[in-house]
Amino acid sequence: MKVLVAAASKHGATQQVAEAIGEELTAREFDVTVAHLEDVTSITGYDAVIVGSAIYFGKWMKPARQFVTRHTAELATRPVWLYSSGPIPRPEAKADYSYDRREGDEIANAVRAREHRLFLGKLDRKHLSLLERGPARMAKLPDGDFRPWDEIKIWAAGIADALQSATAR
Q1: Alpha helix positions (H), the chain
Q2: CATH number, domain at 66?
Q3: Residue pLDDT, tens place only, 103-148
Q4: Which of 48, 78, 97, 117 is a good FRET partner for 91, with 20 to 30 A between their CA atoms?
């Protein structure tokens, strides 16, 4: 079974999540292509697709939105999983990420995705532009890698289980 794992990632952290998902699926003997969404021109030939996007202020990146819009009809005909990556926990904030989930959930409904997951992200100010640093400072976001690697691996294994069970029928 051929699986495409593709993500839109501004600073590389969301692409690293795609790579981790791809590694788990490859270990389960799937034929996996991990790509940057901007480089994917067709999903023909893929039996399943996993699409990820970094989120900024609750929004998917433009290349991810464009990809989904361009391929909505095709995506709706195969197993699809979506993930969003990016919220940074704020020390004084409660863990309510409903705002960050909203657009990914809407896209998941549009393409009839099996699931949309939200993963915490990574913040390294030295890689941010001057324009990006201001909002991060104002929101008092801490630097760090908050991606839940074990949870990501378990989620990818669940996708592998679902795909293997579908092919066993």
Answers
A1: 13-27, 62-75, 98-111, 130-138, 149-168
A2: 3.40.50.360
A3: 999 999 999 999 999 999 898 877 877 777 777 777 777 888 999 9
A4: 117
